[in-house]
Amino acid sequence: MILTLIAAALAGEPATCVFDTAPPEPCEVTFQAGAGGATLLRARGRSGKQVTFSGRRNSGWWAGTLDGKSAMGLELNRGNVVFSTRALDRSFQYWTRGNEHGSY
After folding, report:
1. HSE of 17 in the Cβ direction (CA atoms, 13 Å)?
2. Domain of 29?
3. How many CB atoms lie within 10 A of CB 50?
4. How many Å apart are CA 34 and CA 103, to the nearest integer?
5. Do residues 26 and 19 lie in contact, with contact meaning Cβ atoms separated by under 8 Å?
6. Contact at 8 Å (CB) between 39 and 33?
7. Nearest to 14 by CA among 43, 38, 37
8. If 0-12 CB within 10 Å is exposed, 13-18 middle and 19+ buried, where does residue 71 land?
């Protein structure tokens, strides 16, 4: 039973991801609680593209790092977040089923 709970905690959630300027693709996102209230988000697309965001949420805004570079994020709605590095050289967006912006 404990192994089942651990596997469920590590299982990703199906979503749609946009890696930089590539077209949207099916992906899986996982969330893990970190130290001091931080969240670790990992996403892997069907194409093999992947991204890691580590940071904190505050009223719909996120601050942290995207693949190790300073980044910010904005929740368009719950289940749909857009992230970008501060240098604007990387971006990432994900949404879960039914949460594509403008479709709810």
Report:
1. 24
2. 12-96
3. 15
4. 31
5. no
6. yes
7. 43
8. buried
Beta strands in the chain (DSSP E): 13-19, 25-33, 39-45, 50-58, 61-66, 69-77, 80-85, 91-96
pLDDT in tens, 19-72: 999 999 999 999 999 888 899 999 999 999 999 999 999 999 999 999 999 999
Nearest to 97 by CA among 22, 17, 41: 17
Locate 47 and state its tokens.
């194409």
Structural domain includes residue 48: yes
- Which two three-digit tokens encode residue 99? 């949460």
Q: Give the residue among 12, 21, 29 at the shortest CA–CA distance from 80.
A: 29
**33 DSSP assignment:** E
- Residue 3 in any domain: the answer is no
